[in-house]
Amino acid sequence: MNRATFPHRFLPWLLVLPQLLISLVFFYWPALQAMWQSTLKEDPFGLSSKFVGLENFRKVLSDPAYLNSIKVTAFFSVVTAFLSMSIALLLAVQAEKVLRGKAFYRTLMIWPYAVAPAIAGMLWLFMFNPSFGTLAWPLRQMGIDWDPLLNSGQAMGLVIAAASWKQISYNFLFFVAGLQAIPKSLIEAAAIDGAGSARRFWTIVFPLLAPTTFFLLVVNSVYALFDTFGIIHAVTGGGPGKATETLVYKVYNDGYNNFLLGSSAAQSVILMAIVITLTAFQFKYVERKVHYG
C-alpha cells in the first residue's frame, strides 16, 4: 500500500488548516458559546447576566410548548425523509430506463436543488395560497376547504411537501450514481434466470444501494432538523397554533422574537445533543445492516 509523502512534516497540517479554522470559528466556538449561555439568565439587551446552572434546561423540558415541538419535529422529519428518499429512488430508477435524452432528464431533476429553501417555501405558498393559488383552486373545486394558514393539518402537509420537493434532487443525484455503480451483468443474469423487474429490484438493486441509502438517511435526518428552517419560516412561520413549529424554529422564535436568550441557548444545546445521538445511533445500529460490496 502506497503512502503519501510530503517534503515537510508541517505541510499536511498547513493543508488542513483552513478547514480546521472554519470548523473552529463556525462550529466549535458557537457550540461552546451556546453551552455557556444556556447556563445564564441574561437581559435581552445584554446589560446583565446571572448564572443559573441547569435552570434553563429544567424550564425548557417542562414546557408543554417545547414538548409539542418535539412531537412536531419527529413527525415532520420522518415523513419528509421518507418521501424525499422514496420519490428520489423511484425517479432515479425510471431515469435509468430512458434511452434517449437521459442527460437532459437528469439535468431537469437536479435543477430544483439550486433553489434556496426560503424561495422554495414561497413557491409552494404561492401555488397553494387559499386566495389566489394556482393549485388551490382545484382543491376548492373538489369541495376541500383549503386554508393552510388556518388549518394545522394542511399547514403541516404543505411544509412537508415543500421540504421533500427541495431535497428530492439531492437524493436523486446520489441514487443515480449508486445505480450506475451496480454491474449490469448481475441484473442481466437475474433476468435470464426469469426474475421479474420487481424481484430484480428488491433482491439485487436495492441491497446494493444500501451504502447510498444509509448515507442519505443521515443527510436527510440532519436536513429535516436544520435546513428546513427557511421553508417553515417562509410558509407558515411555525403556525397555525405552533402546529409547524419544529425544534430549530422554536430556538429562533424564543431567542429572536421573545428575547429568551438562556432558554433559546438551552434548546440549541438539546437539539445538538439530539442530532449527535441520532447520528451515532444510525451508525451503530443501522449501518450494521449495510453491505459494502
TrEMBL record:
ABC transmembrane type-1 domain ranges (all copies): 70-282
Task: Tell me which UniProt keywords the record has, alphabetically.
Answer: Cell inner membrane, Cell membrane, Membrane, Transmembrane, Transmembrane helix, Transport
A Pfam family cross-referenced in the UniProt record is BPD_transp_1
What is the protein name stated in its UniProt record?
sn-glycerol-3-phosphate transport system permease protein UgpA
Keyword Cell membrane attached? yes
Question: What does the subunit section of this Swiss-Prot or TrEMBL entry state?
Answer: The complex is composed of two ATP-binding proteins (UgpC), two transmembrane proteins (UgpA and UgpE) and a solute-binding protein (UgpB).
Coiled-coil intervals in this record? none
Q: What organism is this sequence from?
A: Loktanella atrilutea
The compartments listed are:
Cell inner membrane; Cell membrane
Mostly located where?
Answer: membrane
Task: Tell me which family the UniProt entry assigns to this protein.
Answer: Belongs to the binding-protein-dependent transport system permease family.
The UniProt entry, under SUPFAM superfamilies, shows:
MetI-like (SSF161098)
- Gene Ontology CC entries for this record: plasma membrane
Q: What does this protein do?
A: Part of the ABC transporter complex UgpBAEC involved in sn-glycerol-3-phosphate (G3P) import. Probably responsible for the translocation of the substrate across the membrane.
Query: Which GO biological-process labels does this protein carry?
Result: transmembrane transport
Bilayer-crossing residues are: 12-31, 72-93, 105-127, 201-226, 259-281
Q: Membrane topology type, per the record?
A: Multi-pass membrane protein
Q: Which domain of life is it from?
A: Bacteria
